[in-house]
Every structure is written in C-alpha cells, then in structure tokens.
Design a protein that fits this description.
The chain has a single domain, classed as Vaccinia Virus protein VP39 (Rossmann fold, 3-Layer(aba) Sandwich). 34% of the residues lie in helices and 26% in strands. The protein contains six helices and seven strands; from the N terminus they run H-H-E-H-E-E-H-E-H-E-H-E-E. A seven-stranded mixed β-sheet has the order 3-2-1-4-5-7-6, with helices on both faces. Strand 1, helix 3 and strand 2 form a beta-alpha-beta unit. The model has no long low-confidence stretch (mean pLDDT 93).
Amino acid sequence: MKPDPWHDYYARRAREEGYPARSVYKLEEIQKRFGVLKPGTRVLDLGCCPGSWLLFTSKAVGDRGLVVGVDIIPLTLQLPSNVRFVQHDVLAWDESFLQVVGTNFQTVLSDMAPSTTGSKFVDAHRSLQLSESALAISARVLRPGGAFVCKIFHGSDFKVFSDRVRRSFDRVAHFKPKSSRKASKEIYIVGLGKT
C-alpha cells in the first residue's frame, strides 16, 4: 500500500493553506532566517513545479514584484498576476533561455531535485549537476548584492560546490529546514550578497 502523501503535519498544513506541496514551509523557514525575498523585487524560481514556492514568493514580493518560474514539466497551477512560467530544461539552457526569462533578478531560488534512483552516489551526482546549472544561471541573471538559494543532496562533492558558491557571494550558509524530512539528504546552500 502506498503511503498517504498528506500523512505528515506539513503536508496536511499545506493542503489546508492551499499550497500544492509541503516544500513551501522550507522556503518559509529560509525566508524567516535569511530574508531572501523582498517586496517589489524580481525572483527566478528554478524547478518551480508543483508551484508552492511560486505562490509563497508571489505573496512575498507583492504586486510590484515579479516571479519567473522555470521547470521541465508543465505547470498546471493557476498563477497570480505577478508570476510568469517558462517550460525549459535548466540543464540545457543557453542565451535564448536567458532572453526569455530575463535578467536583473534580486533572488534566484532552486528547489530542483533529480528523479531518485536509490543509489546515494548517483542521486548526489545528479543533484550536483542541477545545482551547478542553477549557480551558472545565477551568475548570468543575478544582480550584484543578490541572493541565491539552492537545494543539493549531501554527497562527496558538496564541499567543492559550496566553495564555488562562496567565491561569488559575501556570505554563505548551509541550512536544513525543520520541515525537511529527517531521512532526507537535502540541504540548502544560501548565498547572500552576490559580488
């Protein structure tokens, strides 16, 4: 029998509050701790499906802000007026992708995760590929002083990637939200003050 996805506290709360997934509370914790979302700003949300981070970010930036969501799979969510969606594979981005999504963002969010295989090594490597792509995109679209939030599975290359983020930001923190499942290997790298 498959486990009920609404079984845990955060999943039930997400359903009650109108969010498509429990992941919204991870972003809520990140926002409370680091203040990466500000009213009236532009935010790029990579790997935005099923849309919980888009909805939360839309409220945080307000009507004068803009949120651009990107995902390889179609988004079925009804979007607020300050949100745009672009269907694209972030592992295959190029100049034309940048022209579509735009630049001059104050924050880049990446909650991307690979389809898991059960092999910790393979899953960590795939997560690293997504994280490296997110960092490369942020280098092109994030304005000086901006913030970068990136989920990565903890693996042997974690420190190498974290050091790479550190070279581009004034401050870097590692953060595991309380709302992350205990068994999860995910951790968020938060870069503040893009240089």
